[in-house]
Amino acid sequence: MQKNTEMLSSIDEDLAKAAQLIRDGGLVAFPTETVYGLGANALDPKAVSEIFNAKGRPADNPLIVHISDVSQVYNLSDEVTIPAERVMEAFWPGPLTVVLPRKPGVPDVVTSGLDTVAVRMPDHPVALGIISRAGVPVAAPSANSSGKPSPTTAGHVAEDLSGKIDAVVDGGPCRVGVESTVIDLTQEPPVILRPGGVTQEELEGVLGHVETAASFAEDYVGAPRSPGMKYRHYSPKAEVVLVIGEHADEITQKVSELLAKYHCQGKITGVLAAAETAAKYSSDAVFNLGSRECPEEIARSLFYGLRYLDMQGVDIIISEGYSEKGIGAAVMNRLKKAAGSIIFL
Ligand code: AMP
Ligand code: MG
Questions:
Q1: CB within 8 A of 332, min separation 6: which ones?
Q2: How many domains, in total, are found in the chain?
Q3: Using CB atoms within 10 A as the burial measure, which of 189, 199, 234, 304 is most buried?
Q4: How far is ligand 1, taken at its centre, from the CA of residue 226, in Å?
Q5: pLDDT at 215
Q6: Are strands 138-139 and 37-41 parallel, antiparallel or unpaired?
Q7: pLDDT tens digits for range 289-306
């Protein structure tokens, strides 16, 4: 059934309206510091199941429950350990999701039947304003069609979900631009299931050694611990080719060679490039992600750039690779999942 999707702003009256829609079992997209989320009352299984329908999300990919106050975590899990309390204290509100043993009251549809629940307190006044007014925990995956690049503006959400959800709250572009880091605290040592806005280095500063899930690796085959990791993801309509190398000049040369080859084949090309090299390419379209010296800037514009190049109608997007240090781990994880092919120099 087609819905009339209301566009709301971040004024108090609109946040109250968004909260009421969530309490009434509706679906509302709202900004967080990472990406836009598509929220529903986490305690209402029917509302949560509508999230999966609107996104076309596989039912075995569980959702993150968003809260507006640290104390709410104890309603979702009764095994909040001391290490869990330490990371929540250090990184909340912020781009860190903790996986904890779940309480029986958390509906199966939220956790895809797992005995754990993923919880996060976002660092965005609009998200916090809506969740606190709703008075319930809010299950919210990224507000995109499943498989597409995540949305970092209200316009991206409307492109994918207009007519399928009750409202979009526009709070401007997202500051971090990639999703939260997901850490499984039910394992010892803890395991990073998805790299994101909080870096491994930052987590190790609080927890000591943490593992990274084997399923980050491109050649990984097996059962992932975080079900979301097995799906192709973040993919624009155009085919994505990722060029990974040690030196920026090697990467530039390879990207230029590929551009010549694709032009010869009559393909329309787009390049996702760092500021340092963007001007060097002769391509139908080039999107400048920002400086290699500022990985946070690259992260912030990554999904925007993928969607922008799609809008230009390109057949192929060639992306330069980046260092996996710090938030670069999240950038490269998303690019590898978006890519149909990866060239290692
Ligand atoms: P999204 O909200 O679309 O950014 O995706 C949420 C991510 O968190 C996906 O990769 C899920 O598989 C993961 N996730 C959610 N709940 C759990 C859980 N209980 N255990 C492990 N991973 C989870
Ligand atoms: Mg997602």
A1: 244, 321, 322, 324
A2: 2
A3: 234
A4: 6
A5: 58
A6: antiparallel
A7: 999 999 999 999 999 999
